[in-house]
Amino acid sequence: MTQPIEDYALIGDLMTSGLVGRDGSIDWLCLPRFDSAACFAGLLGDEENGHWRIAPLDAAPGERCTRRAYIDGTLVLESYWETATGTVKVTDFMPQRDVAPDVVRIVEGISGTVRMLSTLRLRFDYGHVVPWVRRHDGDRVAVAGPDAAWFRSDPPVRTWGEDNSTRSQFPVNAGRRVAFVLTWHPSHEPRPEPTDPFEALESSVADWREWTSQCRYEGPHEEAVTRSLITLKALTYAPTGGIVAAATTSLPEEIGGVRNWDYRYCWLRDATLTLGSLLATGFLDEARAWREWLLRAVAGAPADLQIMYGIGGERRIPESELPWLRGYAGSAPVRVGNAAVDQLQLDVYGEVMDSLHLARSAGLPAEEHAWRIQLALLEFLEQNWRRPDEGLWEVRGPRRHFVHSKVMAWVAADRAVRTLESDPSLPGDADRWRAMRDAVHRDVCEQGFDPERGTFTQYYGSTELDAATLLIPRVGFLPPDDPRVIGTVDAVRAELGRGGLVRRYSTADTDDGLPGDEGAFLACSFWLADALHLTGREDEARALFQRLLTVRNDVGLLAEEYDPVSGRQLGNFPQAFSHVGLVNTALTLAGTEKRTTEAD
């Protein structure tokens, strides 16, 4: 059943999402939230763990549609099947919900006559629970524990139960449309009002196009930028404004390996880059909602700051394994939750300070309590920045004095100084934060730089490299023309390069507590393009960006990583960090991104 990760397309309703394969099967769907248990978990197991395929009756297992694309400016997917007897289109989407989440699939005949088959296998609790299915006024209702789902067609078609699945078979000819709607609700509540699938299609297209019309980006690769922004919007949990790192859990960084994590949560470090993308492209409402989520999440004692939170701001994200799922392409274990929530990652203090400084500089109305929160975070960091930590890559090996973590401590002090300089009426001691900024800068340059090789290293005293050091000129720690910056860019490119892209670090040389390898990290590859641009190598930066655009799948989506040898996407999908990287690099190359860099 395993399809390449890049064979999937995303649908969603701004509260959850599903993945539709090129074979017409929805193999991943969590209801009612991104982080809820999946009712289709075939992506991480097999078809018995839940899926919903609609395809021509004579299509072989795994056979792909002829072509597919999103309707321009939307998250509405159209897949075409050209057969010996005719052509049919399947439109997949999730309308923005009023009460309950719906998955709508509309089958439309284009030419000739095609016999179609729908096979629905609902499996609640990540493919573990087979629900009891019964008829009700011509529809089907599936119930198991807290979950209930209604399934109906419009107009009604022949439907029956077989092999613990619900099958529907029907012909379509030119102009005929048959719609299916799957609606979830808590089993103790009454059935929601049925959704009109055809009205929902019209409203969904209109809603998405109204949203994308706000985009202010005008430059090269506008289609790619717009698609990435739509993807970021689709990964947003509308009630709170939090943005999940990805729609999935446990898609592997190495096929058959154990580097499989749950990314259906909100990482603080995504804040700076995501906020910058939204502000620069005109999406002020989303930027404001993301900032408000951030402020709510970090409220509390600074010592209790976490690197990630649940989509509602939840702090507890316990990690466990699901042994009944074999993992994508046999890549076990399958994990839910994420134990990295308990790690010490000092860089997040800098990222929070940077994102709130960026929001203030961009003109978002200041929140009265935001500066007090920032001062509390900075006071904690002042006492703790010299500690080793797990770093932004969340290594499960020993704590180190990671250079990137120290650089972001410098960023925290620097943004505090800038804020006080721009608004002296705010409380705070600018001289104190200048002294901290200078101390961190000296420490990094003395202990995190290898003068013999002319490069910053991964952590103090190491010889390993880290692609995160490519951010040094971007955040203003050193100017782009500094020889130490140029040397770092060249070293990272030479030693961490893979197939023209870049890994985040060498798994062979870095003790990250895990066996195996991983692919080129796409966000880091975009950082390299930015660094090449900043250091004056414009042609090389544009060439790398073009290379990265070719990594996208046929509908413009990116996972976390890429294997240049096999040409396969790897890791959770679609990945917000990768799409933020695409948007920011496009803005950088188009000359519209306004980031401040300062000399030492």
Tell me about this structure.
With 600 residues, the protein is of the alpha+beta class. The chain is 30% helix and 22% strand. The radius of gyration is 25 Å and the shape is globular.
Report the strand count: 28
Distance between the termini: 55 Å
Q: What form results from the Cα inertia axes?
A: globular
Question: What does the largest sheet look like?
Answer: 15 strands, antiparallel
Poorly predicted ranges: 594-600
How many DSSP H or I helices? 13
Strand percentage, roughly?
A: 15-25%
Structural class determined from secondary elements? alpha+beta
Mean pLDDT: 94
**Helix percentage:** 25-40%
- Radius of gyration based on Cα positions: 25 Å
Pick out its properties.
600 residues, 15-stranded antiparallel sheet, 13 helices, 28 strands, 30% helix, disordered C terminus
Please outline what is shown here.
Helix content is 30%, strand content 22%. It is of the alpha+beta class and 600 residues long.
Please describe the topology of this protein.
Blueprint: E1 8-12, E2 17-21, E3 25-30, E4 38-40, E5 51-56, E6 67-70, E7 77-82, E8 86-93, E9 102-121, H1 124-127, E10 132-136, E11 139-144, E12 147-154, E13 158-162, E14 165-173, E15 177-186, H2 197-212, H3 222-234, E16 236-237, E17 242-243, E18 266-267, H4 270-280, H5 284-298, E19 308-309, E20 320-321, E21 335-336, H6 347-361, H7 370-384, H8 403-422, H9 430-447, E22 449-450, E23 455-456, H10 483-496, E24 497-498, E25 501-502, E26 520-521, H11 522-534, H12 538-551, E27 561-563, E28 568-570, H13 576-590
Antiparallel strand pairs: 1-2, 2-3, 3-4, 3-5, 5-9, 6-7, 7-8, 8-9, 9-14, 9-15, 10-11, 11-12, 12-15, 13-14, 16-17, 18-19, 20-21, 22-23, 24-25, 26-27, 27-28
Helix pairs in contact: 3-13, 4-5, 4-6, 4-13, 5-6, 6-7, 6-8, 7-8, 8-9, 11-12, 11-13, 12-13
